[in-house]
Amino acid sequence: MTIADHIWNEAEHDIAYKTPHGQPTAVQQALLKTLRGQLNLVRGTVDQLMDATDQQRVEASAPIDSPEDLRRALEVRSARRLVGDFEGLLDLLLGVLRDVTRAELHHLPLSTGHLDAAKILLERVGQSASSEDLSLIVSALWQLYGMEFVEIVKGWPGRPGPLSRVVRALDKAGKDGKI
Known about the structure:
Blueprint: H1 3-18, H2 26-61, H3 67-78, H4 86-96, H5 102-106, H6 112-124, H7 135-140, H8 142-154, H9 162-175
């Protein structure tokens, strides 16, 4: 039974059992008809709200499997525009998270405050980063996944890119006792 059904039943019960003849007057019938229409609208709105909530859950649990999806999800999560090697960051995240989803990203320390602290940490280890740089994400996640990031980056072929350099700088700073 919904709240709308409860309201209807209460009103109808009061008319049937608490009025002298148990029958609605013309005014009551008109008001009951209006109430029924309004309650149907409420039920429809609640159904739409629940459908939208279900859709949000589905979207939040869908795997992020492309750099572009990761960019969009991180920009929403961090409330800022981000630039950098999203493919490399996706590789890092796939190596440390059970699932890379919007829901998982929501639980990571990626708020404005976390990213501001991550920028300070990067500067302390000699790495400069703009407020849009993906190295902020790596730095913000360092305490949780730093050692795993180091192992993942070791397996990357070729010349070190920006994310590799940040991981190596953070690792070195940790070993040197700077962080």
